[in-house]
Input
Amino acid sequence: MDQRFDVVIVGGGMVGAALACALAESDLSIALLEREYPQAFSPEQPHDLRVSALSLASENLLRHLGAWEGIQSRRLCPYRRMRVWEADDHRAATEFDSEGIGQPYLGHIVENRLVQLALLERAQQMSGIDLICPARVDSIDYSPGASVVTLEGGREIVGRLLVAADGGNSRVRDAAGIGVHKWDYDQYALVASVETGYEQQDITWQQFTPTGPLAFLPLDGPNASLVWYNTPNEARRLMDLPETAFMSELIATFPERLGRIDRLVERGFFPLRRQHAQHYCAEGVVLAGDAAHMIHPLAGQGVNIGFLDVAVLAEELLDAHCAGEAIDSLATLKRYEKRRRRHNLLMMQTMDAFYRVFSNDAAPLKLLRNLGLGAAEKLPFAKKRVMQFAMGLEGDLPALAR
Ligand SMILES: Cc1cc2nc3c(=O)[nH]c(=O)nc-3n(C[C@H](O)[C@H](O)[C@H](O)COP(=O)(O)OP(=O)(O)OC[C@H]3O[C@@H](n4cnc5c(N)ncnc54)[C@H](O)[C@@H]3O)c2cc1C
Output
């Protein structure tokens, strides 16, 4: 027995779940397939390793979808200030403060699981969405207008439009024969979730060192997420150290302003890859989020641009549907691609430039970044632009992100 839907979304992570909610205001029938339901929340749980800095544009989208409440009622941390500086030159430093642009904060740090949980809860409340979870995909047969996702056990889900929201190793993208341009950065992100000696912080900071930046992201209460960008070999060595030896290296390497570390909650590492799909669509199939693009996390933009994909894709699909056009036609899907691919490519190239300039000990680059950081501090206009970028408020925003 097969079940037919207008839209079949494979992947109910942050991006896929948000897209389902954004489309559910229409009469389209939507299937949302997710491999694993996130663990339920309870306040005494330690903070997860996977966290994201969400921009104001992402918050706007989540508010429109009715999911922000579900995040706020659990836990999140607003950050008001951002500081970046060079390890061996404290004059090369810039601090950004949301007060300078009359805003209460620049963004929030949120655990990915809680964003996903809040979105999936919303999806379950919406009559147009069938959440199929846990979904174990056996095979995907891409066929424009009637793609079939077969689950283990033989259940068949047929979709007029198939959406790849299944992350960087997307099976949907492969099934549709859409290739990627990719390379591995010679860098891993080693992430440590810790308890600090501060009651609460409102600043996120990054210190640049020759092997890569060291970053601090505040979480609610004394908790924080540390990101130690390093060469793959160093990251593996650090991961293999016993906890006390790891803590000693952490304390010796991170700057003094990190303060006391009372407890290491968890650590893990993530190989960093840059990947961009050659196309975001073909007839009857479309890509969003990490399935379409993976970027260096140094400026915390990956899911923020994924949410912008959601806002634009939902807008184009709903407009086409209202106008009586086919939601799965190449013409409809290309309008989405046109609005997002170039923007995402630009973001990727900017992150590449940051990676090259800020993970390098070559004297000319060092001089360039020191001059840049020193100059930025004295240029209110430049600082305002950077803050608008961090808040996701640059450019022509889709309605759902405003
Ligand atoms: C170290 C690090 C730090 C980061 N920090 C930030 C940050 O501060 N800000 C930011 O914006 N971004 C950040 N990112 C990027 C961000 O984590 C990703 O962009 C985001 O998770 C992508 O979401 P997604 O829903 O597209 O994909 P994913 O998070 O990969 O979700 C895919 C979902 O699909 C499901 N799935 C996969 N295959 C199947 C299948 N066959 N069947 C059913 N379900 C399936 C998975 O279970 C998963 O739930 C960071 C990334 C890293 C590595």
Q: What stands out?
A: The chain has a mean pLDDT of 93. The longest strand covers residues 180-196. Residues 10-16, 33-36, 52-53, 112, 135, 137, 165-167, 171, 189, 191, 270, 289-290, 297, 300-304, 306 surround flavin-adenine dinucleotide (CB under 6 Å). DSSP finds eleven helices and 19 strands in the chain.
